[in-house]
Amino acid sequence: MVNFTIDLDFNELLRETQKVYQIWQMAIKPMAPPGYDPTLSKNAYNLILLSSYLPTYYSLWQQVLSNVKGEIGSPTFVHAWLNVHRSEDLCDENESLNWHNHSYADYHGFVHISDKKTDTVFRDGQVIPNKQGQMCMFEAAREHRVENRQFSGIRASIGFDILHNPNPAVFVQQVIDSGALPQLVPIL
């Protein structure tokens, strides 16, 4: 597991995140089943592409992709999505961030962009207190979940998967009828 610190104006990034969330609501949510959030519908979009026109997100992606390339090398592909939840959304029954892994990928990571208190807990007992600006990357098969530490407002983070030899079939969700597959972003 490796950790990095992302250096940005997070107030501006959160304002831009609201714009990206609105795009998700208009373009992706209508294709998803009822109750699906940006996390559960992640296979229908790539956050890098949705946010590419926003200047603070551009700076974020420069740092994230540089960290990935420096740690893992090239060629590699990235698929990213937005996690947006209220405190009450993060309960044991929540499908979005309950126990899961990303075994279809080589590595998984996240960037915690809000200042809301949660922990990323691994099945082996390791706990990472999430902090604004924190980027964490680990083997994708490691089972983990997000635990709520009671906060008000909205928690936002970015999840991403890193694939060396992507197989588009792993992104197909039977519940999304659009047939849209996310575009993987190559790190060159």
Note down, in words, how this protein is organized.
The structure is a single chain. The protein is of the alpha+beta class. The chain is built from three helices and nine strands. The chain has helices at residues 10-27, 47-50, 55-72; strands spanning 2-5, 76-86, 107-112, 118-122, 127-129, 134-139, 144-148, 154-163, 185-187. A six-stranded antiparallel sheet has the order 1-6-3-8-2-9. Strands 5-4-7 form a three-stranded antiparallel sheet, with no helix packed on it. The chain starts with a strand and ends with a strand. Residues 173-178 have low confidence and may be disordered.
SSE order and pairing:
Blueprint: E1 2-5, H1 10-27, H2 47-50, H3 55-72, E2 76-86, E3 107-112, E4 118-122, E5 127-129, E6 134-139, E7 144-148, E8 154-163, E9 185-187
Antiparallel strand pairs: 1-6, 2-8, 2-9, 3-6, 3-8, 4-5, 4-7
User: What is the count of DSSP helices, taking H or I runs of 4+ residues?
Assistant: 3
Q: What's the helix-strand series?
A: EHHHEEEEEEEE
- Content-based structural category: alpha+beta
Distance between the termini: 22 Å
Largest sheet composition: 6 strands, antiparallel
Please indicate the percent range of residues in DSSP E strands (runs of 2 or more): 25-35%
Give the rounded overall mean pLDDT.
87
Structure characteristics:
188 residues; alpha+beta; six-stranded antiparallel beta sheet; three-stranded antiparallel beta sheet; 9 strands
